[in-house]
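Bump. Still looking for sulfate adenylyltransferase structure tokens.
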Amino acid sequence: MTTTPDTTAATATKTLLRFATAGSVDDGKSTLVGRLLHDSKAILADQLEAVTRTSAERGFVGGEFDFALLTDGLRAEREQGITIDVAYRYFATDKRSFILADCPGHVQYTRNMVTGATTADAVVVLIDARAGATEQTRRHLTVVQRLGIQHVILAINKIDLLDYDHLAYAEVEAEIEALSGEIGLDTPHLIPVSALSGDNVAATSANTPWYTGPALLELLETLPSKEEDTADLEPFRLDVQSVLRPQGGLAPGLEPDEYRDYRAVTGQVTSGRIHLGDEIDVHPAGVRTTVVGIDTADGPLDSAGAPLSVALRLADDIDTARGTVLAAAGSLPQPRKTVCAEVFPFTAEGLRSRDRVLVKAGTMTVKGIVTIRSKQNLQTSQTEDAEVLAGNDIGFAEFKLASPLPLADFREHGRSGGFLIIDAQSGATVAAGIHTPEAGRT
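Sorry for the wait, here they are.
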């Protein structure tokens, strides 16, 4: 197990990290997040005063307060003492800015954890040092492994209740290492922490001299982010939102004569970078053209990278509309009408074989029919034949599509390999899918 990150890729220019937190109920996750916010000085004075007052009403004495109150903002959550939805928090240190997705702990909200972790560069999974790995621990580690999260941190919490005993911690560490190996999770970082006391959260603690790795916040400050690592390595891709043919006014940087013939496709750069003069492939037109203009609200650019929203002018008059995909020449995945994917249902009913659905990838939506192939037994980490994927299951399905989609491998290209599964009748989102063509499921 690694406890020290590879900092060769981490530099002072890496300013933003997205990470998610997850853990079983009562493992102390909300307290940990509150401690992170407090120790990074991300709490406003009036909020701190209100939390201190509420903590005193709950029996906290001597100036101590309930760190969980800094994160559980919904009234229903406070009344129940649990976190029931993904909450996004923003904070910063001198070295980095963070977007934190605070995920719920109950088993029935595993699907929310999928939502929070999909865009994360790292995931912090909290484990009660006294209880060790639970069913929900296995679920969370399975989800992050299937999503291909590069950096997984296991925070072994409440080490203070074990009197900071190294042998007791080592037993939990061995259990987690065995579980990680069983699931196929590569070298997660293990950190002994006390969210309540602050041990190894923002700074290393003298109470754990046997631990030589970084504190949690120190580790988060040095981990490379997915976007920063791959912005100039991933091939360019843009899912077209609309086609711009303005009727009045002037476009930035254009003369009136140029503006009369102005036509551009707009959208957010999904991955990579585009430069003036670059050749791109256009799907579903199946043609290649050249980018002759890159316009933004602030004026024209010579190049643009993810996640900037842009209007691209093309050298040729090509039939484009919402749902068109633009990609660096030669990089577009082979469009296919049969897609195999790992599926994470969002509803109790989930998905059944022969369900008719809508598959939404980027800005393109196509009709499809589902065939469930198998689901993962989260007790044994084995796959089993299945016809139904219910809420909180993780499984594999095949989709027969009415029109081909150029989906990338999610593990390699992230967002351009993910899609939503929508009930064709109600319009409700019933599941998320990630295209995974490996292991013979093509």
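Residues 7-230 form a domain with the Rossmann fold fold (CATH 3.40.50.300).

Edit: fixed formatting.
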